[in-house]
Amino acid sequence: MSIVGALVVCAIILAIVAIAKDKQTGADYTGGCPDGTVKVKTKPLPLEKAIKINVYNGAGTPGLATSVAEELRNRKFNVGEVKDSQAVDGVAKLHYGPKALAAATVVNAYFLGNADDGSGFDLKDTGDAVDITIGKQFTALGTPTDVHQAFAKLGNPLAPPGTCDTSTAG
Q: 3.40.50.150, 3.30.70.2390, 3.20.19.10, 2.40.40.20: which CATH number matches 47-138?
């Protein structure tokens, strides 16, 4: 019994010392963003029906923006503006702001990860839509299986420089 009593006394003394020497009394666990950063959410990724997109034809192929917009409508995206645009090399180019960061990842998956390298993010864009400019190398949107594989490969986006991730979902 005396051994148990000695262990209890040691444990109490150790706890008191640890609390007294604790240097984290000023730690901030509120999750606030630093001054000057823009709040973004990287997760959860939104469903297609919650994503607003504009589709532009940068490939020079007549009617391409209209046909791609219709296909994306059939996949439940909210399609806004559809029109011709300046020529774009590559499969597609995305342009989006902080409010559409997670949505851009979903859109990029439909282009199998070939539509956005992160350069389409515009910190000053206050809109909530993702602008898609179809490029000269576009052939087709991914099949449902290909899109799911692209989601797995892309994962959730990282908060770009100048932003602060306020996501709460895992």
A: 3.30.70.2390
Distance CA 116, CA 157 (A): 11
Cβ atoms of 58 and 86 within 8 Å: the answer is yes
Whole-number Å distance between alpha carbons of 101 and 154: 13
DSSP class of 161? T
Burial 5-30 (b: 16+ CB within 10 A, else e): eeeeeeeeeeeeeeeeeeeeeeeeee
SS3 168: coil
Residue 170 to residue 165: CA distance in whole angstroms: 12
Say if residues 130 and 52 touch (Cβ distance below 8 Å). yes
Sequence ranges of the domains in the chain:
47-138
The encoded tokens of residue 161 equal: 């420089």
Interval 104-163: pLDDT, tens: 999 999 999 999 887 899 999 999 999 999 999 999 999 999 999 999 999 999 999 999
